[in-house]
Amino acid sequence: MPDPQSDNNNAATTRLNKRMAELGLCSRREADDWIAKGWVKVDGQVATMGLQVGPRSRIEVDPKARGQQREQVTVLLHKPMGYVSGQAEDGYEPAVVLVQARNRWQGDRAAHKFNPGQLRGLAPAGRLDIDSTGLLVLTQDGRVARQLIGEDSNIEKEYLVRVAFGAVATDVQRVFPPVQLVRLRHGLSLDGVKLKPAKVDWQNPEQLRFVLTEGRKRQIRRMCEAVGLKVLGLKRVRIGRVALGQLPVGQWRYLDATEGF
């Protein structure tokens, strides 16, 4: 019988929960839960917590885990200003408090029926500043969270950013130096770390369109400050292939089974 602690070719081993996340089966936390419940087998044997596996180890998951996973929901919220993305702080409420039956968008076509149990473990997959509005994803599904905010995530996030340059708040494009626009696209660092290339273009004379593949804290505001711009308004309109669309401010809908980031 193969030893689940090592690969047939003596390759480096990986902790089971990490390997399951890498394979896209679930999140690490979810994997630990499934392992604790005896729902995971490695090479035919019920797995134990902390087990090391090789790249050729055969991982099997009990259908009960799949059933639990299918019940998990992902919510798309049009976050208003004044709400924080995550835990409550400084007297401000977390955006998740808006996920209530009365705030569900009437245009939501998903088959899900809302129940309070869906709020359990519903967490933001990425941040959106308290002063920013737009698309915020909250999910119970660790696979979605890893796809959007995992270390290897390369999902695009698109923003519309209204700006001023010094005292100029109208026709900003006319007075803003083109060389600084080039710096916004590629040439800035935050906290000593070089930023990934970004797509930055004028949407109209007062508004820039940013497309980023990373999400550093207050990144767009700090990028703008670095080139002399002041952000007057910031709205996230797309994450991956999912757009904010017609979703009204303060309302939410489910991510439909036909959609994906």
TrEMBL record:
Q: Which SUPFAM superfamilies match?
A: Alpha-L RNA-binding motif, Pseudouridine synthase
Q: Does the keyword Coiled coil apply?
A: no
Which PROSITE patterns does its entry note?
S4 (PS50889)
Q: Which domain of life is it from?
A: Bacteria
EC assignment: the record states 5.4.99.21
What the entry lists under CDD domains is as follows: S4
Keywords (alphabetical) are: Isomerase, RNA-binding
What protein family does this chain belong to?
Belongs to the pseudouridine synthase RsuA family.
Q: What protein is this chain from?
A: Dual-specificity RNA pseudouridine synthase RluF
Organism equals Ramlibacter agri
